[in-house]
Structures are given as structure tokens and as C-alpha cells.
Q: What sequence folds into this?
């Protein structure tokens, strides 16, 4: 029975994280989709610090957000994969809070500029797009993500108790 409860809790947490990612991306769509972007939803990439449910939650949330946001197929595929890669490695680094945001920043900085340059036909130099994406990711993952982590720390045992035992 406890195993079923644990799986149900993990699925519920993943669904909530996905829904939050979608809502934050769509509500802030004007700054979520561009060559220089700041996805407020990227603050959620800190959640692998607390729960493994964040890995599928972030992936599905990004996938749905990109579909609803009108992204091209390459952005839907590779943007979602960048988020999945970042989430998996963030979860692996969860023992050190300050390292958790790095995989999401790196995955998006390396992958997304190619989608923007060659998928959307952006005329800016690739390295400049990489710089803009990196800055947006640092702001979303580190600045906003650390604010979120700080706010969630006092609640971690109540919100994410299954993963922390």
C-alpha cells in the first residue's frame, strides 16, 4: 500500500510541476519565446533538489508549454530534451544546492541557440544567441530558482517528504 501511495504522490507532484511550468511559460509568453528570453518557469528547474518527480514534471511541462506556445517542431523536441537533460543531471547533483541549476543552464545554452538560429532562422551570430540564452537561464535558474528554493526550504519536509526519507 505504501508503494502505491508513494507512486501516486510522485505522479501528483510531477503533474503539479508540469502544470506550473506550462502556466508560467504561457502567462509570461512575451518573454518566454525569443532569441533573448527569460522563462520565469525556469525557476522550477531547482525542484530536483527536493524531488525526483521534478524530472518528468519539468520535461512534460516544457513539452506542453512549447506546443501551446506555438513553437516549431524542432523547438518542441529539442527544447523539451534540453529540459529533460538538465533535470536529470540536476537531480544527480541534488546533494549540493548550488550545483543544481547548472545542468539546466548548460543544456539550454548549448541546445536552444541552434534551434533559434537554424529552426527559426535568427540572423544573430550563434555565439550571441548562446550568450543571451545563458543570461536568461542564469536569471531564471539561479536567481529566481534560488529564491524559490529559499522559500521552499522551510516546507520541504511537508511538501516533498517521500523523497527526503
A:
Amino acid at each position: 500500500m505504501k508503494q502505491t501511495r508513494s507512486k501516486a504522490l510522485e505522479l501528483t507532484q510531477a503533474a503539479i510541476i508540469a502544470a506550473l511550468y506550462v502556466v508560467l511559460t504561457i502567462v509570461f509568453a512575451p518573454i518566454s519565446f525569443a532569441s533573448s528570453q527569460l522563462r520565469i518557469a525556469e525557476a522550477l528547474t531547482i525542484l530536483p533538489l527536493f524531488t525526483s518527480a521534478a524530472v518528468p514534471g519539468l520535461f512534460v511541462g516544457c513539452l506542453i508549454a512549447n506546443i501551446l506556445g506555438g513553437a516549431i517542431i524542432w523547438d518542441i523536441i529539442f527544447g523539451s530534451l534540453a529540459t529533460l537533460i538538465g533535470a536529470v543531471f540536476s537531480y544527480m547533483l541534488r546533494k549540493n544546492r548550488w550545483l543544481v541549476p547548472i545542468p539546466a543552464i548548460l543544456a539550454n545554452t548549448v541546445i536552444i541557440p541552434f534551434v533559434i538560429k537554424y529552426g527559426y532562422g535568427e540572423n544573430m551570430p550563434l555565439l550571441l544567441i548562446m550568450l543571451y540564452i545563458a543570461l536568461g537561464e542564469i536569471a531564471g535558474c539561479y536567481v529566481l530558482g534560488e529564491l524559490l528554493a529559499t522559500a521552499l526550504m522551510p516546507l520541504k519536509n511537508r511538501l516533498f517528504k517521500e523523497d527526503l526519507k
The chain has one domain: 2-29+40-157. The radius of gyration is 16 Å.
